[in-house]
Amino acid sequence: MKNEFLLTYSVKDMGKKTSDTDANTVRYYIESYLSNDVDFDDVNKLKNVETTITGMITVTGSIEIDKKTNIIKIIRRVFKKLMDEYDIKDTSIEIDCAILVHGIKKAIVFKV
Q1: HEC profile for 65-98?
Q2: Which among 84, 97, 95 has a CA at the least distance from the CA of 53?
Q3: Into how many domains does the chain fold?
Q4: Residue 7 DSSP SS3
Q5: Which letter does DSSP use for residue 63 in this model?
Q6: What does each C-alpha distance from 23 to 14, 20, 73, 93, 112 come to in angstroms?
Q7: Which domain holds residue 54?
Q8: Which residue in 19, 41, 47, 62 has its CB near the most CB atoms, within 10 A?
């Protein structure tokens, strides 16, 4: 089952030589990576609100904690795929996320 979501994220460089470029790469490509992932539909990066994306996300699990855990796994997987394909090291950038998902009572806040 897919539910509506609103994801906001912040990508900050960690002061490494390539950090600024790496952070900009993530900001630029994340919408297309989410759009092309099987667990997402109708992905739309808001034009006037930077680093905010809406759409539909797969929600699995029988209880809320399982649903939250699975949502975090999906988001992390997509960010990690982008980072791996562009050879962005975990030590180069830090990504903070907050996601609201229809049917989940509170925002889910986590790091990638």
Answers
A1: HHHHHHHHHHHHHHHHHHHHHCCCCCCCEEEEEE
A2: 97
A3: 1
A4: strand
A5: S
A6: 9, 5, 21, 6, 13
A7: 2-111
A8: 19
CB 6 within 8 A of CB 52: yes
Query: Using CA atoms, how far apart are residues 34 and 13, in angstroms rounded to an integer?
Result: 21
Query: Which tokens is 48 given?
Result: 């006037």
CATH number of residue 67's parent domain:
3.30.70
pLDDT-derived band at 18, boundaries 50, 70, 90: low
d(C-alpha 21, C-alpha 1), whole Å = 36
pLDDT, tens digit, 9 for 90 and up, residues 47-83 = 888 889 999 999 999 999 999 999 999 999 999 999 9
